[in-house]
Predict the 3D structure of the following.
Amino acid sequence: MDRSVLAWLIPGMFFTLARCSRDDRSDPGFTYFNDMSEPVAYEYYSQNPNFADGKTAQLPAKGAIPREFVPYAYDKTLNEQKRAGKELVNPVPDTPEQWAAGKEVYKLYCAQCHGDTGRGDGRLVTTKKVKKRVTPLHDDYVQNKPDGEIFHIITLGSVSGFMGSFNWQIKPADRWRLVRFIKGELKGK
């Protein structure tokens, strides 16, 4: 190898190695090819040459599932509700802490119809905004249901269609906490 090349190559290697072994690990050092480290931002509704349709806002890929989302394997029928009651097991421990967390969820989403004590006398019922009878949660009808069946009703709504689905408003873990609260604290009130 030519001495002039070695004279240039050896100091270059030492410089490169010295850059890699610095004490400040938060500094990435030199960027040699910045075509991928400097992102090109596009406004949401602006034209984008990277897509065939020219749109920046693209739909998710077909079949994409949002992060932390688990598809629910049951339909909104009475048979499926009973099956959920047999197959689903509450993963939330039956503790006062979980009851308290379930109570917070209950106050936000359920008390308006079911009332503070679960008797079906919430504000929407007493002001006649809801004209149908709301199921009391302390009754044996609810208390004798398996946890999975109550979870199913909260997730998809009642089969009768009166109570709607809370699938998108309440995360699954909070729905299970809500079941713990309903079967624990509201029992016998």
About this structure: The first helix runs from residue 3 to 20.
